[in-house]
Amino acid sequence: MEHRTFGASDNQFPILGFGAQRIVDEHQCTEEEAIRIVNRAIDEGITYFDTAPSYSDGQSEERLGKALRHRRNDVWIATKTHDRTRDGSWRLLEASLNRLQTDRVDEWRLHNLVTMDDLEQCFAKGGAMEAMLEAKEQGIIKAISVSGHTNPKVQLEAIERFPFDSALVALSAADHFIYSFAHEFLPRAVEKGVAVIGMKAMALGKLAPWYEQALRYSFSLPVATTIIGMETMEQLEKNLAIAKQFRPMSDTEQLDFLKEIIHLATPDVLRWKASEWMSGEWYRRD
């Protein structure tokens, strides 16, 4: 697989990253199968793993920890805090380390900042940023990150306020048409040396009929890696095959693809951007 530099750092990762949100009972993935999938991914060269304490009440982290118990030094682990306070974030990190069976996390993210108010809470006195800076100073984390699905202006403001090492943002082809992180956020992030990790590549499955094109679109962007949620070995093998034979989309190919899927730019499909969801609990769970 093609490898890319991780922002301003010397780290490099393959274009296909592993989204561990789905290796859980909720997605009909058993613990035994989860461990098999993760180990197969590492054997095939995947080194970037993303999880969060909110994914199935910690089961994602727990299973990732069991799978990586003897391979910790082979991978990069990113997890998150959905708490906006210093103390709450520290509690989450301590629990994450326990479930992941490790003494360190390579990358720690502010999870899904939807509004400017979310951002303000994190940067306020006693906010989550204090925990992040303390954890980095203590050597518990390496990289400080931010994530978001909804409004690229929030993440733009975040990287202007602080030199985040990375940002995890929605970069599916369906996201291309409205509140586009590809248009509004990605160029500035690249300019500032922020590593960008793509997510939502399959638009919650809505791009499944265009599977290879959907992945090629996301891989063709100037991202460090793109995480794909995988709950079966079949999905992993399919994604590996596409990543291994990846060639960037030409402008003509991209335009033709976008014409085919523009009808998907609706609130029902892009739920993570729809105004009726912006203050709802759906965002807090994702």
UniProtKB/TrEMBL annotation:
Name the CDD domains for this protein.
AKR_unchar
Its name, as the record gives it, is Predicted oxidoreductase of the aldo/keto reductase family
The organism sits in which domain of life? Bacteria
Whose protein is this, by species?
Paenibacillus tianmuensis
Q: Which InterPro entries match?
A: AKR2_Oxidoreductase (IPR053135), NAD(P)_OxRdtase_dom_sf (IPR036812), NADP_OxRdtase_dom (IPR023210)
NADP-dependent oxidoreductase domain residues = 16-216
